[in-house]
Known about the structure:
The chain is α+β, with helices and mostly antiparallel strands. The chain contains eight helices and six strands.
Amino acid sequence: MILSHPGIEIQPALDYRDKGAIQGMLALWTSRGWLRELDRAFADFLWEEAPDAHPLLILAAALASHQLGRGHACLDLAATHAQPGLVLSIPPEGDDAGQAGLPPAPERLLRQWTLAEWQAALNHPDLVSEGPGNTPLVLSGSRFYLRRYWQYEQR
């Protein structure tokens, strides 16, 4: 079965190394209201700034932005990978991701790679640092921040 959105088709077994597949998934999640348009726009901005960024980095950035919208300062990669259904509100309560025609929820996608693979994909010096610097994203242990919120926590 192919999941579709106008102009986008995604196979159920998503290739997480494929930029187009991740962009399509983010578009589907946004169209369902699972992500905010702001989260997807942030992902698009990062790809404009660093076209060579690993798709998992961009996915993590969109999810970190999503977490901000839910009142969390960061995306805890370890907790998200271990229990995405509890950490993320994707899909929102009452929206059955198993239903025909709906995009797969993060739980299904996160099973495709290990936490170590996800963290390795975040290695992009133009976008991610481990603290001080000018990158838009910060990885501190397993916590992935938008820089401003990492700075707030440091104060």
